[in-house]
Write a structure and sequence with these properties.
This protein is an alpha/beta fold. 26% of the residues lie in helices and 26% in strands. The strands form 4 sheets. It has a 6-stranded mixed sheet, with helices on both faces. The chain has a 5-stranded mixed beta barrel with strand order 1-2-3-5-4. A two-stranded antiparallel sheet has the order 6-7.
Length: 277
């Protein structure tokens, strides 16, 4: 019978079958030999008598960290205060999520903890990210509930950004554990111990272990470049067909940074990501 993995704890996989029954299964040893590991979000075939996963159906996409497959959208929960707002982490997440053909949505948290000058600074960033095409919400927006409709969503962002708090705010019955934020480290303690798809507002949401480190495994420098959506708007005006927007003299992207059409922090982060700064 076919089903969808909605929870993994150690070697136990909870599969929601097509008949809406929940079955806890093990994975066949053949997957290890194939170098394939079942992931939360996978559509699988199970032997309901033996309670084993026998096949994994083709994936739409997958993320390595958090480990999850077949994601429709990633909600990047971005803190503005403890931990502080980080364009570097936000842009890293956007690049990796875009590369994996997942729709990114930005959600700003803890805005109420800022003074008016700090808030205005955040509003300026929000205005820019909206201008280049990203959906941006605040954790107080009522529309947040609507974005989960019939979607498989993953919440991404560093520990302490407010991912579990956001889910609890949207649906108090979830009662997800929330950890303190370490003032010494500036990040939260990991309270989410496993990946699980939770039913929220006609959709499924993954509450996953938080992280603050991310790399660009399997991505080339041009892959990283191509995920900066505003660069693609102007790159045809560069003097080089495959311009990397770095050392080239006739580069429209660099001109747009100088003119203010491209945010300086976005360009600086791009150079850091490709190892040029």
């Amino acid at each position: 019978m076919q089903g969808k993995i909605i929870r993994q704890i150690s070697n136990d996989y909870s599969v929601l079958l097509d008949n809406n029954e929940l079955l806890v299964c093990k994975a066949r040893g053949k997957f290890r030999k194939l170098g394939l590991v079942p992931l939360v979000g996978d559509y699988v075939i199970v032997n309901i008598q033996d309670k084993y996963i026998t096949d994994i159906l083709p994936r739409q996409n997958q993320l390595v960290r958090p480990s999850i497959a077949n994601v429709d959208q990633a909600i990047i929960v971005t803190s503005t205060h403890i931990p502080s707002f980080s364009t570097n982490l936000l842009d890293k997440l956007l690049v990796v999520i875009e590369y994996n053909n997942i729709k990114p949505i930005i959600c700003i948290t803890k805005l109420d903890l800022l003074n008016e000058i700090e808030k205005q600074n955040i509003y300026n960033y929000v205005k820019y990210y909206k201008k280049i095409g990203y959906e941006v919400y605040y954790n107080t927006d009522n529309q947040l509930k609507e974005i989960f409709d019939y979607k498989v969503s993953v919440l991404a962002g560093q520990s302490g950004a407010g991912k579990s708090t956001l889910l609890n705010k949207l649906d108090s019955s979830l009662n997800i554990a929330i950890g303190e934020v370490s003032t010494a480290l500036g990040r939260g303690r990991h309270t989410t111990r496993h990946t699980e798809l939770l039913p929220v507002f006609n959709g499924l949401v993954a509450d996953t272990p938080g992280f603050s480190y991310l790399n660009f495994d399997n991505m080339s420098l041009s892959d990283i470049r191509d995920q900066f959506v505003e660069f693609n708007q102007y790159r045809h005006l560069c003097g080089y067909a495959d311009c990397m927007h770095d050392k080239e003299e006739d580069c429209e992207i660099k001109r747009k940074v100088i003119s203010g059409d491209i945010l300086t922090s976005r360009y600086d982060n791009y150079l850091k990501f490709i190892g040029r700064k």
